[in-house]
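Blinded run. Sample ID left blank on purpose so nobody reads anything into the name before looking at the predicted structure. Input follows.
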Amino acid sequence: MTCMLQKCRTLTLSLNHFRTNPVHYQWRILHNGPDTIDELLDRHVVKKEKSYDDDENELLTQQRLTSTRREALSLYRDIFRATRYFMWVDSKGMLWRDILRENARKEFEESRFEKDPEVITQLLIGGHDAVESALDKLVEKQKQQVAKERGDQDGH
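Blinded prediction complete.
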């Protein structure tokens, strides 16, 4: 609970800092996963290795699955954290937060039984890119809104 509260505070402080000083903003707030796509691919893509006996092979397979599961769960949590900031309603009166969460749940359920490591990695990378893109657009709109408000205040 305190870890989650600390992450929320960090995000809030970073967003406030961004409003005053956009040059020093970094996106490593929501997720402390792999730094690059290469690291993500290295972690998840099955590689041809030395021949091991069945027990060691099973252990390696289990570790890869655990890593993939952990990365998917982390992405799902990132999506839920990011959707907190989408508090406006669409034309039907539904909150965008709820729409985004529902769509994320549907996407994860559709991919739940995927076994191909390359497909899983592509889905994870696409998910991370989508979250980052959505947050980038949100921050850009907030910057425009702040600039507009400052312009209105200067004009009056």
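Unblinding after everyone has recorded impressions. The first helix runs from residue 2 to 20.
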